[in-house]
Structures are given as structure tokens and as C-alpha cells.
Amino acid sequence: MSYLPSLSDYVGSRVASTAEPTSKASSSRPGDTNRILSTNQQIEKMFTGMSRSLSYTSARVARNKKIVKRNLQGVDDGIGDKDDISACRQSMTWTGAYDLESMDTREDTGHDTDLETDDVFEGFDHSGKTSYIEACQRSKVVPVSYYLRHMHESELKLRHHQLGSKSVKPIAISLVSNAKILSLDLTDNSLGCRGAHVLCDMLRENCFITHLNLSENHLGETSAEMLSDIIQITTSLTHVTLSHNDFNDRAAVFFAEAISNTTKIEYLNLSHNKFAEMSGVVLGPAIGENSSIQDLDLSWNSLRRKGAVAIAQGLKTNIMIKRLDLSWNGFGVDGSRELGKALMENTTLEELNVTNNRLTTEAAVLLGKGVAVSESLRVLKMGRNPMQSAGCWAVCSAILKNPHVLMKELVFDDVLVNKDFNEIHQELKNLIPDIHVYHGGLEPPKKPKAKLHPMVKVQNYITKHNLKLIDFFRRFDQDGSMSVSHSEFKEGLEDLGIHLQPEELDTLIGELDKDGDGEINYSSSALIPTH
Q1: Does residue 313 carry a pLDDT above 90?
Q2: pLDDT of 20 over the 60 cut
Q3: What is the mean pLDDT of residues 448-462?
Q4: Residue 363 CB coordination number (10 Å)
Q5: Are 186 and 159 in contact, with CB atoms under 8 Å apart?
Q6: Element counts in the chain: helices (H) and strands (E)
Q7: Residue range 147-165: mean pLDDT, rounded
Q8: Which residue in 286, 288, 337 sits closest to 308, CA to CA?
Q9: C-alpha span between 23 and 16 (Å, rounded)
Q10: Are 318 and 347 in contact (CB under 8 A)?
């Protein structure tokens, strides 16, 4: 503590003042031994007084810290006056000097100290329980029993409690001094912008929390700037999850700044938000500049067209990301082309997820060009894309061409494959025995087309030429007997352009010549069966 007087200065001044007369006395008078003992007793009492004085100072500093903490907690809006806070902080600093001449080291009554009063110095509360109860009383909210039971643990999952900004404020106040909690999960608590403000103030003081989850709290774009500042200045946070918070293109500007400047964050989850094309345009360059994030989740957004291209270009120059989740966006052909180029140059990416990104067979081929060169990619997820079996085949073929292949897992969920894929899959297993390939199963065998009944062809001709049944047969009946022979019927069909296979002719004649006398009687109303 730099504001306290030096121990050597204190002892030196007193020893100098007491040792000199002792020396003179010992050289000129008898009874020197008694005088030396008297001097030693004075020195012991001097140290006793100094120790109590230092204890008094420590107690005074502790009380002043308490005062500062209460002022920092503020009033109803949670924010105290900066001048008051500054003044309280200054009160903790030693500004006076010890009056060593007037201090009586021989008697305890000579020390101005509060140690003899009824006040008891309380030990430091590492959980913040006391400050939490006091903050709840001031804010007039009911303490959360679950928080009180688990505030001593390293991981706190306070999910789905619907705390709101008012109830989370006492928790934030207690977390300022809590040294136990390392992982804080406040998912789905309707915190809103005010709740985010309170938590950001806490995170500026807390230096223990490493994992933070604020998903599903409707934080919105107004909270993005505060969160961005925390991500940039934090000295403890390494994992941050901010999914389902309605962040849009305007919020993306602040997160792009955070991604560019952070040096501590290793995991960042911005999934299930409203980032669209322009968000990708600003986030892409930031990804290229980042040097700390190893796991980035941008899934379930609307990153497409120019935004998708910018994200892929950022990946090309990134030197840290190992896992990138881009699933459920809209990268399409253009995004896949750039991702393929990125895989050719990136040397750190180990897992890429592009599930449900409108990847056609062409997109799979373009992405495969990067897979054929990549020296780091181990997991590739491409399920739920309209690339069909041919797209899966193209990716597997690219892996076979890679001399430095490290691929361990291929995921083609919900994509049906055919026999051609099975053949190349077997080749892949022979090259990489421990590779795991998942797909939607084999395509069902194609059903043979149902043969068209020859009578239907005759009916279609009659309908097309607007003929009556009796007029159709009269063209074959040369003698007008209301019946035609089998040979006449066959020749007539050929003349009319109705081409039937021999087996079809036999089937048709067998149905028309019901009595089997070799003649087809077309006077019967039941001549033509229903098909």
C-alpha cells in the first residue's frame, strides 16, 4: 500500500531518538543493564503501537471500500453520480501522516483506534450474498432462491426464470464481488436493453467470469454497442453466446468492430439473429482481421449473395478459426465458389458446416475444388442441400484427389444417394478406413412405367378425331356386315397410323372378339371395355 509510511522510516526515527541517550548513559553512569532493558521495553511497546495503528488503518480502508461499493450500486436507476463515486474512491487513499512525536508507545490509550468499539470487522464475502440481499431490499424485489443456493458454484445456469431488468440488477451488483462463478448462463430471462446495460456495467468490474450466455433475451440493436465494448475490453471472457437476440444489420456494425479488436474471445455465437446481406459485408473483413476466435457460429441468419461472398473472403485470410458454422443461410453457388477458394488458402479451419445453404450440384463441385487442396479440413457438413447424389459424388471425388487429406467426417443428411455414390464411397473407405460418411440413404428403385392398354390408344384416336365408335369400325368393314375380321382390323389400324406391338394387337383383338369366332362384331354396346 503505497500511501502508508515506510516501516523502516518509522522504526529508524524512534530507534535514533531512544538509542542515543542510552549510549551516553551507558558510558557515564552505573546500572547500564537496567537502562538497556528499559530501552528494549520501550521499543517493544513502540512496535505494538505501530501494529495497532496499521490495523486501524486497514479497518478504516475496509469501511471506506464498503461505502464506495454502496455508492457504485447507485439508486433506482443503478447508476450513481460520477463525482460522488470519485470522491468516495479518494477517501480510500491515505492522505495524512503519522504524528510520531506525539504518539505514546508506552500505553494503549495513546492510540486513536476503533478496534475497541463494538464494530466487528467482517471478512470479505467472495460470493456477494450480503450485497445481493441488500440490493434486493433496496430494489424491493424478491431474492431468487435458486441464485442463493448456487451462487457458490463455478457454473450458474439461471435459465428461463423471466427475471427482467429489475430482478437481474441485484444479481449484477453481487456479481461484481463474486469470485466463485466462472460460467454464467442467463438464457431466456427477458433482460432487454436495460438488463444488458446492468450486466455490462458488472462485466467491466468482474474479472472471474469466462463463459457468458445471454441467448433469447430480446437484447436488440440498442444493446449491441455495449456488448461490443465488453468483448473488446474484457480480460476474462473467452466464450460468449448471443443467439436469438434480434440483432440486425445495424447491430452487425458493432459486432464487426468487436471481432476485429478482441484478443481474448475464443468462442462467439451469433446464431439465430437477423443478419442479412449487409451484415455479411461488414462481418467478412472483421473475420479476416481477427486473431483470437477459434469457434464462430453464424448459423440461422440470412447471409447470402454479397454477404456470403464477403464471409468466405474473410475466411481466406483468417489465421485462427478452427470451426465455422454457416448452416441455414443462403450461400448458393456464388458463396460456394468463394468458400472453395478460401479452403485453398486457409490452413487452420478444421470443421465447416454449410448445411441447408441452397447448394446445388454445381455448388458442390465448386466447393469440392477447395476440399481437394485443403490440408486442415477434417469435418464437412453439407446436409439438406439440393445437390443430389451427383453433388455428394463430386465431394468424395475431390477428397480422393487430395494427397494431404485429413478428412474424418462427411455429413450429407437427407440427401439420397445412388449406386454410383456407393462405389466411390467404398473407394473412400479404402483410402481412409476411419472416415465416417452419413447420408439420407439410397434412392428408391424407379418404378417401371405402367404399360398403356392398347384400347386406350384406340380411344385416344377416336377422341382426337371426333369420331363415333361405329364410324371408326365402318372404315374397316368393307362389306357392311357390322363385323370385321382380325386381318381387316389389323390393316385398318396400320392405315390410320395407330401403331401397336404384336402382343398389344393380340390383347386388343382378344378383348374385342368375345365369342372367339374370328370376327369382331362392333354392333354390341359392350364392345369397348372400360380401362
Answers
A1: yes
A2: no
A3: 78
A4: 27
A5: yes
A6: 19, 13
A7: 95
A8: 337
A9: 11
A10: no
pLDDT, one tens digit per residue, over 225-279 is 999 999 999 999 999 999 999 999 999 999 999 999 999 999 999 999 999 999 9
- Among the ranges 159-163, 491-495, 512-516, which has the highest mean pLDDT value? 159-163
Could you give the CA distance from residue 475 to residue 489 in angstroms, rounded to a whole number? 9
Query: 12-21, 159-168, 194-203: which has the minimum mean pLDDT?
Result: 12-21
Q: Cα–Cα distance between 378 and 405 in angstroms, integer?
A: 8
Enumerate domains of the chain plus CATH numbers.
7-110 (no CATH), 152-405 (3.80.10.10), 454-521 (1.10.238.10)
Q: What is the DSSP string of 426-486?
A: HHHHHH-TT-EEEES-BPPPPPPPPPPPHHHHHHHHHHHTT--HHHHHHTT-SS-SSEEEH
Residue 222 has what DSSP assignment?
A: G
3-class DSSP state of 213: strand
Q: Which residues of 159-181 are buried (b: 16+ CB within 10 A; e: fewer)?
A: eebebebebbbbbbbbbbbbebb
CA separation for the pair 487, 520 (Å, rounded)? 11
Quick check: 484 and 472 in contact, CB under 8 A? no
Is there a contact between 353 and 299 (Cβ–Cβ < 8 Å)? yes
pLDDT (0 to 100) of residue 66: 54
Residue 123 DSSP class: P
Label residue 48 exposed, middle or buried (CB < 10 Å: 0-12, 13-18, 19+): middle
Which residue stretches of 74-177 are H helix? 82-91, 129-139, 145-150, 164-175
pLDDT of residue 393: 96
Cα–Cα distance between 269 and 250 in angstroms, integer? 18
Name the packing angle between helices 277-289 and 306-317 (round to 10°).
10
CB-hemisphere CA count at 13 Å for 247? 33
Res 516 pLDDT > 70: yes
Mean pLDDT, the chain, whole residue set: 81
Sequence-separated (6 or more) residues with CB below 8 Å from residue 517: none
- What is the value of pTM for the model shown? 0.67
If you average pLDDT over residues 53-77, what whole number do you get? 50
pLDDT on residue 172? 96
Q: Regarding beta strands 379-381 and 239-241, do their DSSP bridges make them parallel or antiparallel, or are they unpaired?
A: unpaired
